[in-house]
Amino acid sequence: MCTRYISPDTAAIERLWHVGAGHTWRGAEVFPRSPNVFIRAARHDADAARELVQGTWGLIPWFAKAPRVSYSTQNARSEELASKASYRQPWARAQRCIIPAWTFDEPNWESGRNVWWRFARADGEPWGLAGLWATWVDKATGEVFESSTMLTVNADACPLMSRMHKPDPALQPHEQDKRAVVPIEPEDVDTWLHGSPEQVQPLIRFAPLERYRAGPVAPPQGGFSF
User: Which of 27, 60, 177, 199 is deepest in the core (most CB within 10 A)?
Assistant: First the structure.
């Protein structure tokens, strides 16, 4: 489960995904329920394939009573998209998005304590992480709230990502259900945003090892090291 990442600014987003020119997003370290941006299929412009949207990290489902839910929705298990109430409607409506991230962080417990690791792309480009988006409207005021969630997959078979998160001592290694986010490569973005369920299903996977540059995050006063 990812609980923090660093979002690029609109200049980097526009350069890689060709969307967001003129947007005011300056980039940020993003935590659950904090502001973020995501890329989705353009809703109201027939000539534009994509649009950059500012919202909140943590999907607000249609049935929520308020724009701030009391449970965690920043990550969505891909195996539950068609069945879990919070994600069933966005998944059925193909409300898929890309969440840009320079890096994302995961906890490593191999030492017996939580050591945060940071994951960047080996090629120096931002990640485009698979997500779902939703629009929630306050019926009393008409205010519109945009939000998103990151998809995750089981990573027990990944030599790198299976090392993250606190293990359950009662379970075997292949039973841990360690999770990993789902990177979408630039050449697959249009398929992810516009494709059919059958076309996007093969894209829901963790990245090959050679994509990652990863290592422990140094204490803040010393900067970050990999």
Answer: 60
Reading phi first (left if > 0) and then psi (alpha if -120 to 50, else beta), residue 94 is in left
212-225 as b/e: b if 16+ CB within 10 A: bebeebeeeeeebe
CA nearest neighbour of 120 among 217, 2, 214: 214
- In three-state secondary structure terms, 163 is helix
CB-based contact 1:73 (threshold 8 Å): no
CATH code for position 211 = 3.90.1680.10
57 strand-pairing partners:
148
Q: Which domain holds residue 15?
A: 5-222
Inter-residue contact 20 to 52 (CB < 8 Å): yes
As averages over each run of 10 residues, the pLDDT of the chain (226 residues) reads: 94 96 94 97 80 97 93 96 97 98 96 95 98 96 97 95 92 88 97 96 96 83 41
Total tally of structural domains belonging to the chain: 1
